Amino acid sequence: MQPSPMGLLICCVIVALAYRARGNLMDALIVALIASMAFGSTAMMTLSALGGSTPLIFTAFSLLLIASVAARRNVLKEVGRLFACVPSAAVLCMLMVYAAVGALLLPRLFAGQTTAFTKPPGSLLIIETSLAPVSGNITQTGYLLLNGLTALALCILLLGAPRWNEVKYGFVLLAVLTAGFGLLDLAGKLAGAGDILALIRTANYALLTESNEGSFHRIVGAFPEPSSFATTALACLAFTYAYWRRTGDRLMLGLWLTLAVLLTLSTSSTAYAGLTILALAAAAGLARSVAKNRVRRRELFVVALFAVLLVLALAIALYREGFFDPFLNLLDTMVLDKSSSDSGRERSYWNQKSLQAFRDTYGLGIGVGSSRASGWPVAVLSQLGVIGALLMAQLTLVMFGGLRDIRRVLDPEIETIIASVQASAFGSLVAASLIMGTPDPGLLYFIALAVVVSARTTAMRIPLPPGPQARLLGH
């Protein structure tokens, strides 16, 4: 094991900033955990025993959070209360146990009976080979278990004390860092300085930080390549937009506009597809407000903004013919012709073989980390099988359920935070469904799950105020 000095330094800085803002170590740890996801290529250490694996700095905060909860005096009582009050906790544990057992047994049970896509040690190439146990069974399952335990620990903390503001500050800091690193990365490339964030890229990843697409620089922020930057930026965009739409906060307005511009300039097909889906979701929300005759001034601002941009684009196109040709060519290359490119055909082949592996294993799956897919739903089916997919679907449905029970009894600010966290998880899953190669949806998914189920459980404990609803329920 070889520690990363830069990773340790960044961890200390994040904790110091969070502690100064919150004044409590446990609260600071929650803020730091969420904010650390902005450092997508900064490793905490190098694990030689696992083939040179380099866990990112968020793993350190996850371990600290879990250890802090485990060291509490009444931890057994709190764990019992968690499972008694939150049924989703048992479902999450079943998913974790099934994933761990499957990663150990399934590659050996079906060895040689289907194919998998793996990366040989010391190589950057992904090759097709017969199914067999690989180091990814350990590392990918380890990340999934770590994320699941982090969600359980966060649930215990949120049920024990109202820490909703810490959750909000963590997501705001994540959005600020993601946008800030994106702007720094773009500024450095426009100035001809290259990758000015190379100093913090200590993870053992294949880096695509200085590539161009046509005449456009590819924006990666603090991540190793554009798609991973787009994944986090889409989640932050969804969070800041949802919060701004409900409150009109100017900081959130500036953040989601900045992130939208960075995603548009990122030259990532994941960013463009994700922006399209999020724009359709936002349009559906506006249509619902119109149908209920509850249109806010902020929603009219969004419509006016897109109208002004459209008119401006048409005026520029008429005044200077061919002005948008480079961007149209980029869009044609990265989105419209993506499926016919070598990369698109390769990813399509991965999904085809992953679904074939699902059939070859009679729906049981090939085990977490045994292969790669090109989309989270396909990865869940092929690696976790029917049982794992049903457990994951149940957790996802719980996370994206309505907030009516929360809205009735909790402060409107808390309901806004929970809805924004839900939106962030939606943005993250949209990106994961496009590019994720493993069934682990990522730490942000599990944080959002913990926040939503904790808020619902807290709301259920509070008696309804006197009124028609309370009388109907016998209060």
Distance between the termini: 58 Å
Major sheet attributes: 2 strands, antiparallel
The overall pLDDT, averaged over residues, is 84
Tell me the helix content: 55-70%
**Helix vs. strand class:** mainly alpha
Kindly provide the radius of gyration, computed on alpha-carbon positions and rounded to a whole number of angstroms: 23 Å
Order of helices and strands: EHHEHHHEEHHEEHHHHHHHHHHH
> How many β-strands, per DSSP?
6
Can you characterise this structure?
With 475 residues, the protein is mainly alpha-helical. It has one domain. The protein contains 18 helices and six strands. The chain has helices spanning 5-22, 25-35, 57-70, 75-85, 87-109, 136-160, 164-190, 226-247, 250-265, 269-291, 297-319, 325-336, 342-360, 376-399, 404-409, 412-435, 443-461, 468-472; strands at 2-3, 45-46, 115-118, 127-130, 212-213, 216-217. Strands 1-2 form a two-stranded antiparallel sheet. The chain has a two-stranded antiparallel sheet with strand order 3-4. A two-stranded antiparallel sheet has the order 5-6. Helix 4 (75-85) packs across helix 5 (87-109), helix 8 runs antiparallel to helix 9 and helix 14 runs parallel beside helix 17. The radius of gyration is 23 Å and the shape is globular. The chain starts with a strand and ends with a helix.
